[in-house]
Specification:
The protein is mostly beta strands and 119 residues long. It contains 1 helix and 10 strands; from the N terminus they run ββββββββββα. It is globular, with a radius of gyration of 14 Å. Bound molecules: zinc ion. The site of zinc ion has 8 residues, from loops.
């Protein structure tokens, strides 16, 4: 079986993460997941090596590979855009290297994840 952990190993054309205000879901907050398919009523994501169906209304979906740390508001941690590693944040450097996948990324602004989303 192909390891589906790292986004850069996938041919996915879209990536999705849970909207900040959605809590009733198994997705980790702030982590990006590859999108296998996207329909009007369901998005199929790769989550921990398995496909999972999630309502698109719960998701923020992008077409370019995420390349910045998600800063999860109010909870003082950031999530690696490449491997979804969660790192506690004290003072935020301009760039940070992930201890798990060794990739370095800049941070997105805190309000980008907590901003109101269109429904
Ligand atoms: Zn990483």
């Amino acid at each position: 079986m192909v390891a589906l952990e790292r986004l850069d190993k996938l041919p996915a054309g879209r990536w999705a993460r849970l909207l900040d205000d959605v809590r009733r879901c198994q997705l980790r907050r702030g982590a990006w997941y590859p999108v296998l398919s996207l329909g009007a009523d369901e998005a199929v994501l790769v989550v921990r090596h398995q496909s999972m169906i999630v309502p698109p209304a719960y998701l923020e979906i992008v077409r370019t590979r995420p390349s910045r740390w998600t800063v999860v508001p109010r909870e003082r941690y950031a999530v690696c855009p490449n491997c979804a590693e969660r790192v506690a944040l004290g003072t935020r450097p301009e760039r940070m290297r992930c201890g798990r996948c060794s990739e370095a990324f800049e941070f997105e602004l805190e309000h980008e994840y907590s901003a109101p989303h269109e429904t």
